[in-house]
Amino acid sequence: MQYRFGLYAALNLGFLLLMGIAVAFSGMDNARFVYLLLLFALCSTSVIDLDGLNGRYSLLAIFMLAYFVFYGVGDLTALIFAKVTEVTESPVTMTEAVILVGGVMLVLGYRLAVWAMEHRRPRPEAKDWSQSAALIVGLILWAIGTYATYRWYVVIITDTTNETVRKGLNSMSMLSATLYILAQMVQPLGILLLVYVYRVSRTAYMLPLIIGIVILQVALGFVVDIKGLAMLAGVIVIVSSLLIEGRLPKVWVAAAVAFIIVGFPILQTYRTAVRGDRGLTPAAVIQNFRKTLDIVLSAEKKVNEGRNRAQTFLERASLKGSVQMIVEGTGNGVEFQHGYTLTPIAAAFVPKLLWAGKTEVLTGQLVNKAFHVTDSDNVYISPSHLGELYWNFGWSGVVLGMTIIGLTCGYVGAGFNLRDFRTVTRLLVTVLTIRQLIWGFEGGIAAIYVVWIRSVAGIGVLHLLFARVHVFPRSAQSPNSGAPAADADQPGSDRRYPNLLT
């Protein structure tokens, strides 16, 4: 513990030195200096209790890293590159106070959940899937999900305008729409299962399969103009590998960095030069894919350079502007929502097939309209979960809401950590939580949490169907327990210990 406090102090001292050098070279008297120090000090507290990259506090470390990117990187890059930012007399603005308090409540909620989970009666063993079951089910779910995603965005819903969405939904029955949505939800689960087999079995054929899935996902995300979809498989591989083995997959991380540097500007150019300026549909792009690539590559410099360039990856990740708009506008011309945008969560398990009049709140469009960001009805403005909580209930929403989010993530981090038991179910729940609750923190709360709740329920059903192999706590194994006591797929074994690493 003393070593971790020393590491925490060293990180903050290094960050202070970095900002001091930036101020000295830029010559800017930037009022965000104090805010950045406080935010970094808060976000780096996760190193104090971090018990491994796949332990109880791994989710908190990932969340706080994302939290700093969401709310601090914009001001930090502005300070380093001497860009003008908001200058106020106060060292911490109202918006920054909301961000800091929200982060504190998130950390406290997480730690409270871990404390509560530590005081429950431990389970002596868990159940896991056999590798053959994980491989077969993973291939089926991935194939179904990929086909449904392709059909949905290429044939049915070709763009995000309200008119196109209504037209696409009206072209099919309610049952068909529900099945398509469910099929898309299982695609990440299929990829997760395949990555689990890849990292655990180390068989020769799994690596080419995973690389092919990642490339296909990038191509699909490119065609349908959804960056998150393009990056989905790669992110799943990196996060899953980290959680399964407790260490970063360096080659995959290097590939991800290269994609952000090279691929992200190409995706931005495609959105502007092909989807925006030319109005081409995904189907038209597929028919003329080579020509589309030529258009994108020739327009890449024009779109990503100059005064009117597209946003970079870090600029798009920054959510501080949205929170500032909400904090400054709510109660000053914009009414509080009093929980309205959160209402769809209450009907998470009631499909539209059974309730035609089910409430649907498009939070991103509602933010755009309420705060008069643009005149278009088709623009989505990401409020971030923090901003939406303030928009609904003000300070009480920030304090209570962020505590609940922290409790939720803390329960998953402690109850499903892969340091104690490495199983398919734990991996599915943990990665799903990272994808939805942490990566999806920028979006509307209801849409994110409804998918998370339904997916966790689906994982529970899959666990009941396929988890059969008994697994003991990894800490209880002997030093030589890296090798399984018996083959996970071999019948007649009383105690099978699959997939255990030292």
Write the layout of secondary structure elements.
Elements: H1 2-26, H2 33-43, H3 46-49, H4 58-71, H5 73-80, H6 94-118, E1 126-128, H7 131-156, H8 162-170, H9 174-201, H10 206-224, H11 227-245, H12 250-276, H13 282-287, H14 289-304, H15 313-317, H16 320-329, H17 363-370, H18 384-393, H19 395-415, H20 424-438, H21 445-466, E2 469-471
Helix pairs in contact: 1-2, 2-4, 2-6, 4-6, 6-16, 6-19, 7-9, 7-10, 9-10, 9-11, 9-20, 10-11, 11-12, 12-14, 16-18, 18-19, 19-20, 20-21
Explained architecture:
The chain has 502 residues and is an all-alpha fold. The protein has helices at residues 2-26, 33-43, 46-49, 58-71, 73-80, 94-118, 131-156, 162-170, 174-201, 206-224, 227-245, 250-276, 282-287, 289-304, 313-317, 320-329, 363-370, 384-393, 395-415, 424-438, 445-466, and strands at 126-128, 469-471. It has a two-stranded antiparallel sheet. It starts with a helix and ends in a 31-residue tail after the last strand. Mean pLDDT is 85; it is low at 476-502.
